[in-house]
Amino acid sequence: MKFNQSLQSEIDLLDEEVQEMVEMLSSDDEGDRLVAAVNLQQECDEDTIPFLIHALEDSSSSVQLIAVTTLWEMANAKAVLPLLECINSKRDKKVSDEACSALKELINQDHLLKLLDYLESEDDLQINYVLILLRKIHDVQALPSISPYLSSENKNIRKEAVITLRYLNQLTHFTPANTLADDPDQEVRKETMLTLGNFREDCIVPILCNSLENDESWEVRRNAAIALEMHGDNSSAKSLSSAISDLHWQVRKFSMRALTKVLSEEYLGEIVKLLCDDYSDVRKEAAIALGLLGSKKAIPSLKQSLDDADIEVRIQSQKALEKLNV
Q1: Cβ within 8 Å of residue 300, ≥6 positions away
Q2: Could you identify which of 10, 63, 104, 221 might form a hypothetical disulfide with 58, taking C-beta atoms 3.0 to 4.6 angstroms apart as the criterion?
Q3: Contact at 8 Å (CB) between 105 and 72?
């Protein structure tokens, strides 16, 4: 692609060696343009930024990709707006992904309004990328623009939208997000659990408990347990005490961790059983919980765990016994 008159005049200001590389960017031969792009990447001369931006519109996605990477490495703010033009479905996916990665490091609060402009798009891929980039800025002012995408027909957009909510500063509740706990898509539900972990509405803990007890996906149940640990609400104790017997070990592990925040001796029997769990991560969490619970009734079981095959379980069992003055 030939340079416009403005760029052509800037070539004369470059060093002679760099001029040759830049001029090759306008060659009709793709191989020449690739060589030029690679050489300019190695040169890393900020005076070549306008020409690398020009190369973002090259007919070759390989040339575009090298240009994006080079602009990323130069970390110059001049590249932000041109790179925003690369995060859409018209581009090769590798180019868009690279541009998004670059923008994560280059954008700042000053670009918020421009990002919100790009969010108003019919291009689902562009919407996804912008939702991801908004997490870097953390500004709750973006909430009204993000909100409509929580009900998008595109499951990936719903997922990215609900993830972005948990990155917004000072956002402690947002009722439209609560309904995604029952979303038909597992990935959306999984991410919703973690977002609800940051929210503090009275209805949140019951929603998380329901997902922990009833969701068909172990990943959703696990994330519900992680979120309940963040809340540390006593009303979750019953659900968590049941979930430490879940069929999946990760649900048992994180439910056990959450239960340590709301411990009661009435759950001693269920916790002791986990010292014999097939998974050492679960056994370790049980030992930690028993130390925190402080019941002498756990001493015989903890002593047996001193012979556990896993060193971490043995260490935590010893620490638990020390807390019990044994």
Answers
A1: none
A2: 63
A3: yes
Torsion of CA 38, 29, 12, 57, to 10 degrees: -70
Could you tell me which residues come within 8 angstroms of residue 18 by beta carbon, excluding any fewer than 6 positions away? 40, 43, 45, 47, 48
Q: What is the DSSP letter of 203?
A: T
State how far the Cα of 130 lies from the Cα of 112, in Å rounded to an integer: 10
Only one residue has tokens 């992680």, namely 226
Closest CA relative to residue 317, chosen from 294, 293, 280, 286: 286
Residue 275 near residue 305, CB atoms below 8 Å: yes
Q: Across the 326 residues of the chain, what is the mean pLDDT of every consecutive 10-residue run?
A: 65 74 85 91 87 92 96 94 96 97 96 96 97 96 97 98 96 96 98 97 97 98 98 96 97 97 92 96 97 93 96 96 87
Alpha-carbon radius of gyration of the chain: 27
- End-to-end alpha carbon distance in the chain: 79
The Cα–Cα gap between 259 and 62 comes to 52
Cα separation, 186 vs 188, in Å, equals: 5
CA distance 134 to 118: 11
CA 107 to chain centre: 17
pTM above 0.85, yes or no: yes
What secondary structure does DSSP assign to 121-183, as a single string? -S-HHHHHHHHHHHHHH--GGGHHHHGGGGG-SSHHHHHHHHHHHTTSTT----HHHHGGGG-
Nearest to 289 by CA among 326, 323, 263: 263
What's the angle, vertex CA 84, arms to CA 79 and CA 89, rounded to 5?
140
List domains and CATH numbers for the chain: 1-106 (1.25.10.10), 172-262 (1.25.10.10), 265-326 (1.25.10.10)
Distance CA 110, CA 62 (A): 30
